[in-house]
Amino acid sequence: MSKRRNVITTVIFVITLVSGICLIAYPSFSNWWNSRYQSRAIANYDHAVANMNDSDKERILAEAEKYNDRLSELAAPYDEYDSVSGYDDTLDITGTGIMGYITIPKINVYLPIYHGTSPEVLNIAVGHLQGSSLPTGGKGRHTVISAHRGLPSAKLFTDIDNLIEDDVFTLTILDEVLTYEVDQINIVLPTDRSELTAADDMDLVTLMTCTPYGVNTHRLLVRAHRIDTVYPHNVRVPADAVQVDDLTVYSAIVAAVLILLLIYWLIMSRLRRSHNFSQEKIYDIPLKKNDNS
Q1: Which positions are annotated as active-site residues?
Q2: Domain 54-237 belongs to what topology?
Q3: How far apart, in whole angstroms, are the C-alpha atoms of residue 170 and residue 223?
Q4: Average pLDDT for the chain
Q5: Least reliable range by pLDDT among 1-5, 36-40, 53-57, 139-143
């Protein structure tokens, strides 16, 4: 009965320990997996662009400009965008819904931009808010890019609150890099779109996410204006050292501690079994009879 109880205890302990390790490792593993998926999607996009001729690129950009022109004629573009046809097909050169990608060096963001902000999009990448300008640049355009923060499965815009004025990010559309410098940071209600309207003399992009972290009652808007791109595009120089986020470090430390505890527990269990076996052998040794008896 005692051995059976020990086996049950051992099984419960191992299941609990393995479940704890999996629970702790899931965010880091999932984020790593999504990062691989996102990087592959961007690589496929760049490959598709590289295989296009200049006339096709010019035609695609011209179609996007026409779409933006028609959108700007609407009195309330965020309410009436359905009246402008062709959204899903415009700038979609791979047939996957990707219209380009965003790079934010300060917070290590490198993500594809998809059409729309459906749950399927926002769970894996960033989405273009329909009703805002397509990201082709130009005065009178205001593009809105949205993403979640705090997802256990993907980092996305989790660190966007670290951006401050004068920070820079880029949008890569086809083979053109559009560079933007942060000039405003606002917190608004979800229904407040006053900060998302276009300005006739400005080329704007706003990054949007939920705030406060984990509460999500408001929207954090990081607005930026277009500046000159001062470095050659189509060249991504990897850093000499890769910065690992705190969550990954903490997960690795806790997982290592749990594994060490498991090893320690297995060793101690084996020593106890060995000790008990030795004691049983001692008790099994027959006593010698007294020669005088």
Answers
A1: 148, 210
A2: Sortase; Chain: A; (2.40.260)
A3: 13
A4: 82
A5: 1-5
